[in-house]
Each structure stands twice: as structure tokens, then as C-alpha cells.
Amino acid sequence: MTTFPVSISLSSYGADLVRERGQADFIELLAKAGATRIELREELLTVEDPASFSLATQEHGLECLFSSPMELWEAGQSRPNPQLIPTLQRAQAFGAQWLKVSLGYFTEHCDLAQLAACLNQQPVHLLVENDQTSQGGRIEPMLRFFDTVEQVQAPISMTFDIGNWHWQDQSASTAARLLGHHVTYLHCKGVVRRPDGKLIATPPTATDLQAWGQLMTHMPHGLTRAVEYPLQGNDLTWLTRQHVQVLGRLNHTQRELSHV
């Protein structure tokens, strides 16, 4: 059976454990579990050395994506966040081929042409993700942004976070239908509401997996999909391998059936 590339967001192992062990400590684990890509989290960095991290990921045959909580557009500003270039450079130093950020406060006054010119000089590819905020977690601003990206032919694609739409009561299926052709990276997580009303990420149920497969029919075939839900247990390598196998098969059946 064909399997597709799977990434692991290191936040899945819990902030405390990741900061305690250091993110480089998970490289071998991910390689043994069959992952294709490691998603390094800027907010969890402690003592990681960029050059050593880059070398280790290459030696273990892993792709690397650098995730930053930075918002691409700050409120009231037409120019991109001044931290974008330093963050792209930091991502490159860690050996990342992609930088993932949030949208921020995008308006019609934002200078996407200048951003496109800047990104054309950068070796790291920019991904913009729907987050959990009102400015970056709703369909309408994301749609306006990617419509403009198309107009100016900016080298930017989308990270589609399936679960994050819940935080702004948005329809993931509508988002996939309208934005799916921009997506090159898929963040997967189930979402449930606790008794106190707080939304939390959870591993997928069978129902979640079926729904995710339907969402993916609106996206490029074979795109990399990422675990971004809790991976907790005594044997993290075994547990990770199980989820890599599940997500790696996701959408395969739907695609095969569509051609029968």
C-alpha cells in the first residue's frame, strides 16, 4: 500500500518534556518511527545548536520545517513583520526548507509585492497557517490573503490546520473547499471541548480520520501531513510509528476509489 509523507510537530510530545530533553533528542526517534519531516518549534528552543541540529537531521534523512509563533503582519503595518528576515535566517541555520508562521493582521494595505520580492531572494519557503485567533483563524482573511498571493505570484503556500478552525467556529470543510488548492502542509489534530468549556487537541478518532480524508480531496495529492496532537506513552518510538502509519495511509483509499 502506498504511504504518504508524515511530519511530527515536536510540540506533540509536550512542552515540558521537549524543553527538558531538547528538540535534537527527538531526531533519531522520528527517523526510527518512519517520519519524513521534523517540525522544530521556535517557542520550545532551549540549548539547541543550529549547525549540529541541521547535520543530525540530514544524517537521519529527515526534512526540517521551522515553526514560529510570529505573525506575518502586525496590526496597522503595511510592511511584513521586521522579524521575518531574521526568522527565515534562523530557520535556514537549523537546516529547515520551510518556515511556518501565522497570518496576523492582513489588510488591503499590506504590501505583498514587496514581500514577494523579498521571499524570492530567500532559500527557505514560507508557509502561512490558520491559527486560533480572530485575525488569523477565520476563512475570510485567509482567502483574501491567498487571493492576493496568487495575483502577485508570491512564493507562499498554506499550512492548513484542521483543528484550529474550531477556535473561531469556522467550517473546516468550507475552508478546505475554498483554500485547499493553496495547501502544501496539513496539520492534523482532533479537538474536543472539556467540561470547563476549553477546547483541547486530541488524537484522532475513526470519525476524525474519515473526515480528514474528505478534506484532503480538496488539496494536492500526496501532501505532507503532520501530527500535532498529544503523543504520550512509555514507548514514544512505538507510539509515533503507529500514528505515522495511520496518517501515511490517510486519503489513499479515497483517491483509489475516485479512479475506479
SSE topology:
Layout: E1 6-9, H1 15-21, H2 27-32, E2 37-41, H3 50-59, E3 63-73, H4 84-93, E4 98-104, H5 112-119, E5 125-129, H6 139-152, E6 156-161, H7 172-179, E7 183-188, E8 190-193, E9 199-202, H8 206-216, E10 224-227, H9 236-249, H10 252-258
Parallel strand pairs: 1-2, 1-10, 2-3, 3-4, 4-5, 5-6, 6-7, 7-10
Antiparallel strand pairs: 8-9
Protein described:
By secondary structure, the protein is an alpha/beta fold. It is 37% helix and 22% strand. It contains 10 helices and 10 strands. It has helices spanning 15-21, 27-32, 50-59, 84-93, 112-119, 139-152, 172-179, 206-216, 236-249, 252-258, and strands at residues 6-9, 37-41, 63-73, 98-104, 125-129, 156-161, 183-188, 190-193, 199-202, 224-227. The strands form 2 sheets. Strands 1-2-3-4-5-6-7-10 form an 8-stranded parallel beta barrel, surrounded by 4 helices. Strands 8-9 form a two-stranded antiparallel ribbon. The radius of gyration is 18 Å and the shape is globular. The model is unreliable at 254-260 (pLDDT under 50).
